[in-house]
Fold these 2 entries.
Entry 1:
Amino acid sequence: MALMPKRVKFRKEFRRVRDRKATKGNYVAYGDYGLQALEGTWLPARVIEAGRVGAQHFLKREGKLFIRVFPNKPISKKPLETRMGTGKADVDYWAARVKPGTMLFEIAGVSEATARSTLARVASKMPVRCRFVKRRVTV
């Protein structure tokens, strides 16, 4: 089942600039280790689901996986060989807005080696460069 909002106020949105750095959601909040995006993009729901399936398959039943992004931006696309005009196209897919520094996935309850290999597998499925980060210890 694809991730998408249950209800939205407006069906279609403008395409916005996505080059600013993330100021919210850019640190490990729930787990012990995380996967951080280094570039900005729109992350389609199917890519998020592919990452989740890859991580769960690797983790089996140990640990907990947290998905920190949600696809709440509708992306519209006109069919091929369609003349210009006649209004804005229908929604093609839903995507999450990802800015540089946004935390995509987090893992808790596993060793660092397991977390590294799991998140490396997830990162290979992502269309952006990502890096492995640890939770900062605060005193």
Entry 2:
Amino acid sequence: MAVTTKIEAGRPVATLINVFTVVPERQAELVALLSRATEETMKDRPGFVSANIHASADGERVVNYAQWESEEHFRAMLADPAAREHMTRAAELAEHFDPRMYAVESIHHA
């Protein structure tokens, strides 16, 4: 059974949130690249849980919210040449990017 994105405090996953700043004309291209990279490379790497690609309404940001079983799995992916190729291309499309690892601290529902 496939594991899907599940957000809950205390869940033992490593969460990457990478915020890309782009010129609006490149937003769709970056979204397509990140989606393709996930389908072709990331999802088959050990420890991959999920990735969710978000595009801002103003066209200036793309956010990749990804979960890995552990930070070690994420770091191992960083060493993979195919993954690095996709990440290099994403960096070329972006004006700026800010990848950081996060822990969920609080969840609220209606």
